[in-house]
Design a protein that fits this description.
The complex is a heterodimer of chains A (77) and B (596). Chain A has 2 helices and 6 strands. By secondary structure, chain A is α+β, with helices and mostly antiparallel strands. Chain A has a single domain, classed as Roll (SH3 type barrels), CATH 2.30.30.90. By secondary structure, chain B is of the alpha/beta class. Chain B folds into 2 domains: 195 residues, Rossmann fold, CATH 3.40.50; 372 residues, no CATH class. Chain B has 26 helices and 10 strands. In chain B, the strands form 2 sheets. In chain B, strands 2-3-4-1-5-6-8 form a 7-stranded mixed β-sheet, sandwiched between helices. In chain B, strands 7-9 form a two-stranded antiparallel ribbon. In chain B, strand 3 and strand 4 form a beta hairpin. Chain B is globular, with a radius of gyration of 27 Å. The chains are: A alpha+beta (77), B alpha/beta (596). Chains A and B meet through helix 1 and strand 5 of A and helix 3, helix 13 and strand 10 of B. Strand 5 of chain A pairs antiparallel with strand 10 of chain B.
C-alpha cells in the first residue's frame, strides 16, 4: 500500500482508497478517481510541481499534496 | 416559447456546438435564481421558436463549484422542454454519469456524443443503437467542430419538441435533486455492456507533442518563446493593416466629411470632425490588430496548450499562494481582464479566488496594448519598439507576482489543484472566424457606449469656456490638469496626458481617442505632435502608470460582482493606484537622476 504521490514515473497502480473531504472526493470521482481504477504516472513537473496521471482515457494533473490523499496498490511486474 | 438547455462537461465542445446551432445570434440574458449571465439564442425548431441556453460546463449535477450551483439553480427555477446533453465520446466511461443524473430528473433529453473522430482514433467503439434503447433517449454521434451528424441530432430534438409534452416542473426537479441515487453502479454496468475501451490508447500524437512541450527543462522556455513569436506575428501582420485602415479613415475625412461640414458652424464641424471623428477613427485603426490578437488567443485557448502552461507553472505559482489555473487566468487577461476575472469561478476556496482576482487587473489587456502601440510608435524607433513592448509585458508579470507575494498571507488557502489535460486540438476556420466576429462586435458596442461619449466629453472640456484657446490652461480640462499637477508632475505626466489618464479610468480605449481630441490631430500628425511635446522618459512613465492603475470601469464592476464585496473592490483600486504612482515615480526620478 502506497500513496499516489510516492509513485515513480511510468509506474502503474490501482486505486485502493481515497481519503478526502466530501467536496474534493466529489471532484476526484467526477474526473475518474474511483476505487479499483487502474492508473499510471506519466510525468512530474520540476521543483516538486504537479503529477501528470493517466486514468483510462483521461489525463489529469494534480499536486503531490492532493495525490497524497489517494492510496494505491502497485502492480508487481 | 419552448426552452432547450445545452448541458455538458467542460472541454466537450459545448460552446462550439452552441455557436454552430445559434449562428451569431447569441445574446447574454438574465435568468431567475442565478446571478451570472448565460448565453442564449432564439432558434427555429419544428415550427416552434425555441430558446437555446448554453449552461456552464459542469462535471456533476451534485457538485459544489459555482458553475454546478448555477446549473442546479437554473433547473430548479426555470421550466425546460428539452435538454441536449453533449459528451466527449472518448471519455464516455466517466461522462455518462451526467446523462443518468438528468434521466433521473425525468427531463426529456437528447444525447449527442461529440468528438466521434477522436474516439475512433483511440479505438473506442460505441454501440449507439443499443445505448439508445438502454437509456431510452435518442443517442447520436456528432462533430460540433465540423457539423457532422448535427441535422440528425436536431431532428431528434424536433421530434421531442413536437410531442408538446408539458415542460419540467422546477419544484419537482428540486425535490428529485435531493434524492441521491445509485448512479455510479448503473454507469459501470452500462459501460461494461455497451462500450469497448482498449487498455492502451492507439492515438499517441498528443503524447509525442507533450514529450517536447512538457519537457522537464525545455517546457517553460518553449512556452515563452512561443508566446513571443506569436506576439511578433500579430504586430508584423497587423501593422500594414493598421496603417492601411488609418489611411482610408484619413482619406474619408478629407474627401468626404470635410466638404460635408464646410458650411456648418465652426463648433459643429469641430465637434464632429476634431471631436468624434478624430477620436473614434484613431481607436478604430487598431481594430485589425485587436482582431488578429483575439484570433491567436482563441487558437491557443482551444488548442489545449493553456492547461499545459498551468502544469509547467504550478510549482512557481504555489510559492505565491496561487496555482496553475491562476497563471492561465493571467494569460487570459491579456485579451480582456473581465472574462479572466469571471474565470476564477472554477476556484472553490474564496481566499485563493480573491487573491487571483487581485492580480488579474495587472494583466496587460488588449485595450492597454492599443495605447502602448500608439505611444511606442510615436516616441520610439521601429527597432526599439518590440523591446519596449516586451519590457511592458515583463512589468505586467512582475506587478502580478509582486501583488501575489505581498498579499498571499492575507489570502491563505488550501485549495486542491486538480485539472484535466485535454488532448491537443486544432480549431476550424469557422470557429476562428466566429470568434473574431464576436470580438469586432464587442468592440463596436464598446465604441458606441464609451468611446463616443468619452471623446465628446473630452472635446467639450478642452474647448470650453470658449473665450480661451482650445486645450489651454484656461479650459475645464486645463483646470483639472492643474488640480492634479502636484501629484502627476513628479511622474513627468503633463496636463494633456493627465486628462487622457482620467478618462482612461472609464476605458483604456478612450486614452488615445482623448489624445486625438486634445491635440486636434489624427494618425501620423498626432504622433509627430506628441513627439515634440514629451520625451521618451515621460512616455515610459505614462505607459507604466497606464499599465498598473485600474484597467477600466467594467473590470471594477466585475471585481465587485464576483467578490460580492465593496471593501475588496476598494482594496484593489487603492493598491493599483498606489503601486502605479510609486513605480512611475521611481522610474521617472531615477531616469532623470541618471541624466536622461
Amino acid at each position: 500500500m502506497r500513496f499516489l504521490s510516492q509513485l515513480q514515473i511510468g509506474q502503474q497502480a490501482v486505486i485502493s482508497a481515497i481519503e478526502a473531504e466530501e467536496s474534493l472526493f466529489h471532484r476526484l470521482s467526477a474526473l475518474g478517481f474511483r476505487v479499483g481504477k487502474p492508473l499510471s504516472i506519466i510525468r512530474r513537473a520540476n521543483f516538486n510541481g504537479p503529477l501528470h496521471v493517466r486514468l483510462g482515457t483521461t489525463d489529469v494533473i494534480l499536486r503531490s499534496t492532493d495525490a497524497a490523499r489517494i492510496q494505491v496498490n502497485v502492480h508487481s511486474d | 416559447m419552448k426552452r432547450i438547455a445545452l448541458l455538458g462537461m467542460p472541454n466537450t465542445g459545448k460552446s462550439t456546438l452552441f455557436n454552430r446551432i445559434s449562428g451569431a445570434s447569441a445574446r447574454v440574458g438574465n435568468w431567475p435564481g442565478i446571478t451570472v449571465d448565460l448565453m442564449s439564442a432564439k432558434i427555429l425548431i419544428g415550427g416552434h421558436i425555441a430558446e437555446l441556453i448554453d449552461l456552464p460546463g459542469i462535471y456533476d449535477l451534485h457538485g459544489f463549484s459555482d458553475d454546478e450551483q448555477v446549473v442546479r439553480h437554473f433547473l430548479t427555477k426555470n421550466p425546460v422542454d428539452l435538454v441536449i446533453i453533449l459528451l466527449n465520446s472518448s471519455q464516455i466511461d466517466r461522462q455518462l454519469s451526467l446523462v443518468l443524473q438528468i434521466k433521473k430528473l425525468h427531463i426529456p433529453a437528447v444525447l449527442a456524443l461529440n468528438m466521434a473522430d477522436e474516439a475512433k482514433q483511440s479505438g473506442i467503439t460505441i454501440d449507439t443503437d443499443d445505448l439508445e434503447k438502454a437509456l431510452q433517449m435518442p443517442v447520436m454521434q456528432i462533430s460540433a467542430k465540423h457539423g457532422d451528424g448535427l441535422p440528425k441530432a436536431l431532428q431528434a430534438a424536433t421530434q421531442i419538441i413536437n410531442q408538446n409534452q408539458p415542460a419540467t416542473d422546477p419544484k419537482m426537479i428540486s425535490q428529485l435533486l435531493q434524492e441521491d441515487n445509485q448512479i455510479e453502479q448503473e454507469m459501470e454496468a452500462l459501460i461494461q455492456r455497451h462500450v469497448h475501451i482498449p487498455t492502451t490508447l492507439n492515438d499517441n500524437t498528443t503524447d509525442k507533442i507533450d514529450q517536447i512541450l512538457l519537457h522537464k527543462w525545455f517546457g517553460l522556455p518553449i512556452f515563452f518563446a512561443a508566446l513571443y513569436v506569436l506576439f511578433q506575428f500579430i504586430f508584423t501582420a497587423g501593422k500594414p493593416l493598421q496603417d492601411g485602415l488609418a489611411w482610408v479613415l484619413h482619406l474619408l475625412r478629407t474627401s468626404l466629411l470635410e466638404p460635408m461640414f464646410a458650411s456648418s458652424p465652426a463648433w459643429l464641424s469641430g465637434l464632429m470632425l476634431d471631436g468624434i471623428y478624430n477620436g473614434v477613427a484613431t481607436v478604430a485603426a487598431f481594430v485589425p490588430i485587436i482582431v488578429l490578437f483575439f484570433l491567436v488567443m482563441s487558437m491557443i485557448e482551444d488548442s489545449g496548450y493553456l492547461s499545459r502552461a498551468a502544469f509547467l507553472m504550478d510549482a512557481l505559482m504555489a510559492k505565491m499562494g496561487l496555482d496553475g489555473r491562476g497563471f492561465v487566468m493571467m494569460l487570459m487577461g491579456f485579451g480582456c481582464n473581465v472574462p479572466a476575472l469571471m474565470g476564477t469561478r472554477v476556484m472553490r476556496s474564496r481566499p485563493m479566488r480573491l487573491l487571483t482576482m487581485l492580480v488579474i487587473p495587472f494583466s496587460l489587456c488588449s485595450a492597454r496594448l492599443q495605447v502602448f502601440i500608439f505611444i511606442i510608435a510615436a516616441l520610439f524607433t521601429a527597432k526599439q519598439a518590440p523591446i519596449i513592448l516586451f519590457v511592458l509585458y515583463v512589468m505586467s508579470f512582475l506587478t502580478m507576482f509582486l501583488t501575489a507575494l505581498l498579499f498571499q498571507s492575507q489570502y491563505k488557502n488550501a485549495e486542491p489543484f486538480i485539472l484535466e489535460l485535454p488532448p491537443y486540438r486544432f480549431p476550424t476556420l469557422r470557429q476562428i472566424v466566429l470568434r473574431g466576429w464576436q470580438e469586432v462586435k464587442h468592440f463596436l458596442i464598446r465604441a458606441s457606449k464609451f468611446i463616443v461619449i468619452g471623446v465628446v466629453l473630452v472635446w467639450v472640456m478642452t474647448h470650453f469656456p470658449n473665450n480661451v484657446p482650445p486645450a489651454s490652461i484656461g479650459t475645464f480640462a486645463g483646470q483639472i490638469g492643474l488640480f492634479f499637477a502636484p501629484i502627476l508632475d513628479p511622474l513627468g505626466i503633463n496636463n494633456q496626458l493627465a486628462i487622457a489618464l482620467i478618462f482612461g479610468f472609464v476605458a483604456k480605449e478612450i486614452v488615445i481617442g482623448a489624445l486625438a481630441v486634445i491635440y486636434g490631430l489624427q494618425g501620423d500628425a498626432l504622433m509627430a505632435q506628441m513627439a515634440t511635446q514629451i520625451d521618451w522618459v515621460q512616455a515610459m512613465s505614462f505607459m507604466l502608470f497606464t499599465l498598473i492603475y485600474t484597467p477600466c470601469l467594467t473590470t471594477i464592476a466585475t471585481l465587485k460582482n464576483e467578490s460580492k464585496s465593496s471593501a475588496f473592490m476598494w482594496v484593489s483600486i487603492a493598491w493599483s493606484l498606489g503601486l502605479a504612482w510609486v513605480v512611475s515615480f521611481v522610474f521617472y526620478q531615477t531616469a532623470r537622476g541618471l541624466g536622461f
